[in-house]
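Archive entry: two folds, one per protein. Generate the first.
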Amino acid sequence: MEFPEDLLYTREHTWARQEEDGRVVIGVTEFVQRELGEISYVELPPEGEKVSQMEVIGSVESLRGVTEIYSPLSGTVMEVNELLLDDPTVINDDPYGEGWIAVVELEDPSELDRLMDAWDYQALIERELEGFSLEDDEEE
């Protein structure tokens, strides 16, 4: 599983990448797309919508279920990835690149400090995966 070091992460499995112009690209992590399998539908936030940090801004859906997308930061949605409306599997193929969800004009740069770096997020995933395997062992 990839954990790009130029991204910041949330416990809710979204990522944020600050661009040179100050805007922030957000998306869902590889962990989400692996857990869901092939994504069949994406609900995107409307452009121009004001969002708050950790507010639900959309969802991704597959045969395995629906996962809400939480905004890692507060701001205004400036752009959404309309490619996902026609082909949501782009998230499966490239969650950290072409599979981005939205671009947000950042309201409070200090919120970036509340996100996890790649190392902390990787440790979180390892703990979650260990928890899954422990639960599986207990069921046997």
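Generate the second and append.
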Amino acid sequence: DALFVAKQIAAYLKSNPADLVLFGKETIDYNGSQVGGMLSALLDLPYVSLASKLELNGTTAMLEREIEGGIELLEISLPFVVSAAKGMAEARIPNMRGIMAARTKPLNIVPAFEASNATEIKSFTLPPTKTGCKYVDADNVDELVNLLRNEAKAI
């Protein structure tokens, strides 16, 4: 669950502090976008969600995020936690040289911190299958009205 993941990251960061902790919009918490906020609460750090631009300036950062009707500009002091929205970075396809160089880099495996899960997933179910759609000729208005009234109950 999201709290378990946040506790794991918090345990690591307590002994290995970071000035900036960056999350994607949808993380490994089943796209709940919860881990970043939970981590900031566990570490008592400021949190900015869904930032679309990030610029570091020494001990502060300038952030932008899209809000209804405009763009919000934020200035925040390090350290902090931020989740990124689409637009913060462009996806790049690595070249073969980069792929080969990455294979030789050491991989630091950190043992898990012992923590209990706050939630338990009981089951996953698929949504009900959708019924097929009907095509109505553009000239057949009577049939369209009949389908909307009697089958879809839309009018």
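Annotation attached to the second fold: The chain is about 30% helix and 25% strand. The mean pLDDT is 88.
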